[in-house]
């Protein structure tokens, strides 16, 4: 059995949906299909998820509601019309949206998740309806009935362990199952979503639950490339990554796959195949367990950069002789419910790299005050920071990778603020100013791939 996921660009209009259905029907093993909300039809278009966020805000503010609702309905109605579907499915979608708009929620985050989830939910209903209209044995799967239960973290939910046993029963069905991505249900019955792009996570969870042979993730590129094609012209295609390599790249801004999508399949050793809806015959890129990966031919497999970080620098003379000092620093983050991304250190200093979105100004101020109370000699903060990741299994057997990388930064006149490399040697992290993120990717790509 294969679990297949289609992204928003693959479902943006009726023409794309027909391509998707053709791909589904070309392989009888493609029985569980995860769908996103319709994406952009052209560069200046608006994704349905963003239209739904606007609708949620309009409802909250009490103005512009009709126009916002009409914008969402127009997208679905246009797709339904071009698929020669009757008005019934459009009425179903309209009634669903109105019902959500009038649901009493205890806070705005809960309401926004409820509204955002309508994108995937109604996309799944529409695609199941189309497949049924052309005589296929397809059905819409309700995530609640199937058992997709998540933590009560609005906009950033995690799958609950007992969901896997419930979802495993889907393997017993003989239909083509159209499953909406991106959301599930908390234990109290409220709708909760994964973080943005979370349909990838839904696919990974389902693949693990039914022990799929492969998780196919269809998007709009033939391969995963060594760097962002928006930054590099005709970047080098990479036919195979390991889980660890892709995890590092996804974390650092690779937009092809959600960074949390690999966790469920990693546990089961299920390969992931990134493929192109618009060129389904292309083999795409495989993501496999380390033990199944052939010996790398290049030292570097990919380069990625992400902005939106801050760094807290704590300096304390003789820190290395103070037992438990690092624990005290991390305990402060735990108290404030802030996670850190990296922790480069010296004998007298520790730097904590944190995503800015997780550490708003008032929370940051409390953290700094607590650090000063720990008798640090100095506590400083650098904001508007970026991380650049150089990733590849081949680095472990190659001399001089770090030297070449730092030389590339110097040649491009980019100041490296920090360097961090784990013991696995699969990646090297460079800290730079946010303004240098894109030039850093270009400089490293030119060094290792041109």
Automatic annotation (TrEMBL):
Pfam families: AA_kinase, ACT_9. One of its GO terms (biological process) is homoserine biosynthetic process. Pathway: Amino-acid biosynthesis; L-threonine biosynthesis; L-threonine from L-aspartate: step 1/5; Amino-acid biosynthesis; L-lysine biosynthesis via DAP pathway; (S)-tetrahydrodipicolinate from L-aspartate: step 1/4; Amino-acid biosynthesis; L-methionine biosynthesis via de novo pathway; L-homoserine from L-aspartate: step 1/3. Gene3D superfamilies: Acetylglutamate kinase-like, VC0802-like. Substrate binds at residues 49, 120. CDD domains: ACT_AKiii-YclM-BS_1, ACT_AKiii-YclM-BS_2. Belongs to the aspartokinase family. This is Aspartokinase.
